[in-house]
Amino acid sequence: MKVARLYLAFVFFVLYMPIFYLIYYSFNSGGTMHHFESFTLDWYKDVFDDTRLLVIVLHTVIVALLSSSLATIIGVLGAIAIYYAKHRWKQTLLTLNNILIVSPDVIIGASFLILFTIAGIQLGFTSVLLSHIAFSIPIVVLMVLPKLQEMSPTLIDAARDLGANEWNVLTKVVLPYVTPGIFAGFFMALTYSLDDFAVTFFVTGNGFSTLSVEIYSRARQGISLSVNALSTLLFLFTLLLVVVYYIITQRTSAKGGQK
Amino acid sequence: MDDRVIIRFNHVTKQYDDDLPVLDDVSFDIERGKFYTLLGPSGCGKTTILRLIAGFIEPTKGDIYFHGQRINHVPSNKRRVNTVFQDYALFPHLNVFENVAFGLRIKKIPKADIERKVKEALRFVNLEGYEQRAIHEMSGGQRQRVAIARAIVNEPDVLLLDEPLSALDLKLRTEMQYELRELQRRLGITFIFVTHDQEEALAMSDEIFVLNKGKIEQRGTPKDIYDEPVNRFVADFIGESNIIVGTMIDDFVVEFANQQFTCVDYGFSKNEQVDIVIRPEDLELTTAELGKLRVRVDSVLFRGVHYELCCYDAYGNEWLVHSTKKAEIGEEIGLHFEPEAIHVMKRSGGE
Amino acid sequence: MRRYAYAVPYWLWIALFVIAPIILIVYYSFFDIEGRFSLVNYETFFTPVYLRMTVNSFWYAFLITACSLLIAYPTAYLLTKTKHKQLWLLLIILPTWVNLLLKAYAFLGLFGTYGAVNALLEAIGIGTKQLLFTDFSFVFVSVYIFIPFMILPIFNALEKLNHSLIDAARDLGASEWTTFRRVIFPLTLDGVKAGCQAVFIPSLSLFMLTRLIAGNRVITLGTAVEQHFLVTQNWGMGATIAVFLMIAMAGIMAITGNKKWGVRQ
User: So where does this one cross the membrane (chain A) (predicted)?
Assistant: First the structure.
């Protein structure tokens, strides 16, 4: 068992080393990622002084929140439509749904670029937002659909039996039942949006940028420790998100009554 | 129409796509205030009848009447019937109180009334004090009661129960059988109970419908059906039976196992081939000399209250005997039975 | 169909963002850089330059997938044996939530001439090596980025495995290795397939890594698409490569089977 532990320890070490390496050097006054001179918070100050960067962070967050909210609404409706679809349509719909999930990012990016150009949509905020909604929808569907499928169909019969009309069935039974799936879908969409680089890179114009695109262009110019500081902040933010997500799912599943 | 009749099926057929009909031209009346059981093997159409009454599906052919009104296309949420589902179908996101209150809330009944009615319904099923429990904190038997409370709180004219006891263990099941019967008497409404368990059906019902392959084979009181099964299927399904082929020699005389016996049946043609049923508990063990039938014991099983003996006569017929007496394997014994124990049935087609 | 009216936005999404883009890509692949209808892009694709690039892409994608699988399977297997396995799994997933570019950027530092890895190599007497801008670093960083996506489905498959099957195999006299080879591995093959899918397809189209880590030494089909769309503005050629990427993708989906799509989480 000792070998096993060592192996796992090694995997976790490699997995986290780069992240902590970045964090460690974000406090380096030396300005490089190999020689630690002395502790400093200058790079963090740089980040907070950089209005351009702060605006980009704001844009990224707005795009992420907007796109994942809209994608969640559309995706939930889509999942319900697939759930009710006749059997032979179900498979077709699922295949169409999953195309964007399995497609390489460059293809999504390139094809959306063509789409927006033809439709005459200015590259920038709108095109990025639309793209993010588009690639988040199938993720929401995939998170919600299994919850729908695991729901016993007699629950719907029972609700009808007790006098519920279609709307009651949806709002009083189906939606509450799949709430954990909706949350999971929303958070997944949020992280996909925050994380996306390739698609955004294709459909963003000159005036608009998200964090990923900005990091890419900065990283191409070489090492700058303010990027390290930024990644530390992002990592902490991610951790916070994970904790919040964890608490929410724990609470809803406790309420929802899964064993 | 007789005003005791609450539900009428008039030549109802239910068929999916081009498959064989799951329900094939069935007609019957259901009267108010009685406990009915639909009994049959899986796939016989019993649940289909229930779903047709509940309104989850519509008949392919024929008409369904409720209080004399045709209700073929009335959706389930507009019918005065409620269902207790096999898997209970309790809403996992709502607690006990809210589950029971679900139907009342949809009808927009005043809050105070809801409170009162839900409490009353829970008291009816002995679940006072469980209002705030989550469904997953309830045991199988308790969920069962919540499901019943949720249905009866809406004061339906008919309560439909779809194999509600099948998920419970034997002891609890027997307990619930008593409770359900008692509940039906207290409420005075019609219960339609679906099961594949013949003991359950016999124990609880005023009237049983035995179904097979989408048709009603026999309907009657439990005693009728047990004592006078109309054919081999019913006899076989309603309890372990010895069913053998015989010949009706004359009124009150039947021949099987190469012997003639006196019986109480009449009205068959002379020398008509018939099925003979003798219940295992109607066969008494005696010595080979005193018995009406002479058989050899093949196996003996101890069943708690009685022994179950499997015997063969000289012609290869198998005889199942339930007896409090024990016999040795290989022993030659005699079987005694009364003329009333012999049930003669018309041979069912194809068998 | 009136009942499906609520899903109109979803139908619109399928039409506009799933079907239309595919059609557009195929359509554009038939136009040359001047905007004239022609098959020149397809002719170009079948020249040695592009064919070699295709072979290269597949080779790298294969290498990345194989390495991920080799490391991920034992990891997933050992994870299922740990206490608090859900917590450990969460720790495996957590790095995927860190922006991919930041992770790539970290390796710029780690693999740099004076970076931590070279310092280590120096210390154990191997001496400083050129790490950045090599095939090795490209594969390593790719594996690093993709490995959680390989571990996750395998872990789930192992978790779903009925434990009494393993007991049964041992009971019937199978050694630990035979049990693994004849029972555990075949039963977790679906997870392996899902993992391979999740790694192979995106690694065909990595372009930011080739730029940042491999310093344009490695040119994959993905890099070429990006190049044609955003640098040389030859959309037709980019679309043609994209068409072949889509064909490859469909082929991989067919091979690895897509029965589990609806239930994958």
Answer: 7-27, 53-84, 96-123, 129-148, 169-191, 229-248
Flag whether C touches B (3+ CB pairs, 8 A cutoff). no
Instruction: For residue A108, list chain C residues with Cβ-Cβ distance below 8 A.
Output: 21
Which residue carries 């989480």 as its tokens?
C265
Nearest residue on chain C to A204, alpha-carbon basis: C230
For the segment A65-76, what is each residue's pLDDT rounded down to a tens digit?
A: 999 999 999 999
- Chain B neighbors (3+ CB pairs < 8 Å): A
Residues in chain A whose beta carbon is closer than 8 A to a beta carbon of chain B? 152, 154-155, 157-165, 168, 172-173, 176-177, 179, 255-259
Distance from C-alpha of A106 to C-alpha of C226, rounded to nearest angstrom: 7
Mean pLDDT across C207-214? 81
Residue C97 with chain A: CB contacts under 8 Å: 191, 195, 238, 241-242
Please indicate, yes or no, if residue C150 is contained in any of the structural domains. yes
A33 to chain C: which residues are within 8 Å by CB?
Answer: 108-110, 112, 115
Span A34-64, pLDDT tens digits: 788 888 888 899 889 989 888 998 999 999 9
CA distance B59 to B55: 9
Residue A257: pLDDT band with limits 50, 70, 90: very low
Check CB contact under 8 Å for A110 and C25: yes
Angle at B6 between CA B3 and CA B10, to 5 degrees: 105
> Is residue B236 assigned to a domain?
no
Q: What CA–CA distance (Å, rounded) separates B105 from B2?
A: 35
pLDDT 10s digits, B49-73: 999 999 999 999 999 999 999 999 9
CA-to-CA dists, residue C139 to C109, C118, C249, angstroms: 17, 18, 20
Taking an 8 Å cut-off on Cβ atoms, the answer to whether B154 and A165 are in contact is: no
Residues B30 and B160 in one domain: yes
Torsion of CA C174, C176, C180, C182, to 10 degrees: -10
Q: Greatest CA span in chain A, whole angstroms?
A: 73
CA–CA separation, C198 and B96 (whole Å): 43
Residue to substitute from A2, A15, A35, interface C, most C β-carbons within 10 A? A15
The parent domain of residue B49 ranges over 5-227
Question: What's the rounded mean pLDDT across residues C46-74?
Answer: 92
Which residues of B are less than 8 Å from A158 in CB distance?
Answer: 83, 85, 89-91, 150
- Whether C and A touch, i.e. at least 3 CB pairs below 8 A, reads as yes
Interface residue of C208, C210, C263 to substitute, partner A, most A CBs within 10 Å: C208
Chain A residues whose CB is inside 8 A of the C176 CB are: none
DSSP state of C112: S
Report the alpha-carbon distance of residue A144 to residue A78 in Å, rounded: 9
Give me the residue label for tokens 């006098």. A163
Say what the pTM is.
0.80
Total domains, chain C:
1
> What is the residue-wise DSSP string for A10-52?
HHHHHHHHHHHHHHHHTTBTTSSSS----B--HHHHHHHH-HH
**CATH no. for residue C253?**
1.10.3720.10
In the CATH hierarchy, which top-level class contains the domain A67-256?
A: mainly alpha
Determine the Cα–Cα distance for residues B239 and B233; give it in Å rounded to an integer. 10
Q: What is the dihedral of CA B13, B15, B19, B24, to 10 degrees?
A: -10
Q: Nearest residue of C to residue A131 by CA position?
A: C17
**Is the ipTM of this structure higher than 0.90?**
no
Cα four-point dihedral sign B120, B123, B124, B130: positive
Residues of B in contact with A176 (CB under 8 A): 91, 93-94
Instruction: Give the chain B residue nearest A167 (alpha carbons).
Output: B106
Contact B164, B85 (CB under 8 A): yes
B263 and B287 belong to one structural domain: yes
